[in-house]
Amino acid sequence: MATIVVGVTGGVAAFKAPIVVRECQRAGHDVYVAATRASLDFVGRSTWEGITSRPVAVDIAGEGRAEHVELARVADLIIVVPATANSLARLAAGFADDMVSLTVLASDAPVVVAPAMHSNMWLAPATQANVQALRDRGFHVIEPASGALGSGDRGVGRLPEPEEIARVALGVLAARDQASNALAGRTVVVTAGGTREPVDPVRFLGNKSSGRQGLAIASAAARAGASVRVIAANIESALLATLPTAVQVTRVGSALQMREATIAQVADADALVMTAAVADFRPEAASESKIKKDLSNEEAPTIRLVRNPDILAEIGHSDQRPPLVVGFAAETGTDEEILAYGADKAARKGADFICLNRVGESVGFGDVPNDIRLLDARGNTAGRYVGSKDEVAAGLVGHMASFLDNLKR
Ligand code: C5P
């Protein structure tokens, strides 16, 4: 039995939300209702209290403050039904001044959102951008249906049937339960971010890697029950703060520091996932003092580079390698070309899998969806994950869990 919080916002489709609550109860779950004030004009307190036999959470002032944190904490799943255009905007922007948005913001449970509104509002670029932002963050936004709308018009924007909403939401819950123990008892080391190779005390050679994909994998592995260690190269503190608190973080700067930390951390690990962008070269010797520009001389200094060790290849080929080693490769080119590069890289580096990240016009950079193929050393495609970094991470973690389980047998 799971605890489900149904968040109701103020749209005419709110009359269907009690059926979603009923369906969740019929599946054996414990349901709480959080409602915005505006929604009470559509479905009142007494309906909710009658169905759930408990008070409906509406007020966030006074004692309610503790209540919202409590609801957020106990929730295994949150369903926002109906979600108005206004509430989508509020969820996307991270508002927390009504019980629904506040519970969503304070919880790390999966969130299913069922929008319902007039077609024009649904199709408005602002709404579509908000929906995309929520999806990128891992929210499950159900597409509204087409048909008669509350306004009397016809078009897209209708709330899907409540039984269908409940079915999708319970599916999300089941997938989470399945994943929640998949890596229990395992130790996973994830390298993330990008190394910086010192030139002098104030300068470095670096790269653009934010560390987001690595942190998403670390979080997904932790959610799947693994004990997770992250080796973080130059990742913003605000991003690191999004990791579950149980994840152990070692901060490093350069490739050599990353090598040392990674070798130390993988000794007793079940898996290593090298998402970090490690510089292939470093200045031969970092100057001890800031390199000055010599105004009398037009010439620029020459910085001699030397090769960095390939951490993945070193660990992948060592006797003490963890049972599962995963590397990342960002490639451009045709499908055929990138598959060949990926397979070659897996074999060369002694990795069990290479996550091949197709980079190009619209995939792979910043916050946009990723398209990742998992290739084994023989060049076979073992999985393909398209979507937000969280969705890709969940897919990869699922694959890692079954790989490790199969080794045991
Ligand atoms: O050869 P390439 O840089 O494309 O390989 C990428 C993979 O190798 C990534 O998993 C990266 O973390 C790892 N790598 C490494 N040490 C290096 C360079 C890359 O471990 N010096």
From TrEMBL:
Pathway: Cofactor biosynthesis; coenzyme A biosynthesis; CoA from (R)-pantothenate: step 2/5; Cofactor biosynthesis; coenzyme A biosynthesis; CoA from (R)-pantothenate: step 3/5. SUPFAM superfamilies: CoaB-like, Homo-oligomeric flavin-containing Cys decarboxylases, HFCD. Residues 3-170 form the Flavoprotein domain. Its cofactor is FMN; Mg(2+). Gene3D superfamilies: CoaB-like, Flavin prenyltransferase-like. GO terms for biological process: coenzyme A biosynthetic process; pantothenate catabolic process. GO terms for molecular function: FMN binding; metal ion binding; phosphopantothenate--cysteine ligase activity; phosphopantothenoylcysteine decarboxylase activity. Keywords: Decarboxylase, Flavoprotein, FMN, Ligase, Lyase, Magnesium, Metal-binding, Multifunctional enzyme. Residues 183-401 form the DNA/pantothenate metabolism flavoprotein C-terminal domain. CTP binds at D280, K290, P309, D310, I311, L312, F328, K345, K349. Its EC number is 4.1.1.36, 6.3.2.5. Binds 1 FMN per subunit. It holds the Pfam family DFP. Residues 188-409 are annotated as: Phosphopantothenate--cysteine ligase. It catalyses: N-[(R)-4-phosphopantothenoyl]-L-cysteine + H(+) = (R)-4'-phosphopantetheine + CO2; (R)-4'-phosphopantothenate + L-cysteine + CTP = N-[(R)-4-phosphopantothenoyl]-L-cysteine + CMP + diphosphate + H(+). Catalyzes two steps in the biosynthesis of coenzyme A. In the first step cysteine is conjugated to 4'-phosphopantothenate to form 4-phosphopantothenoylcysteine, in the latter compound is decarboxylated to form 4'-phosphopantotheine. NCBIfam families: coaBC_dfp. In the N-terminal section; belongs to the HFCD (homo-oligomeric flavin containing Cys decarboxylase) superfamily. This is Coenzyme A biosynthesis bifunctional protein CoaBC. It comes from Schaalia dentiphila ATCC 17982.
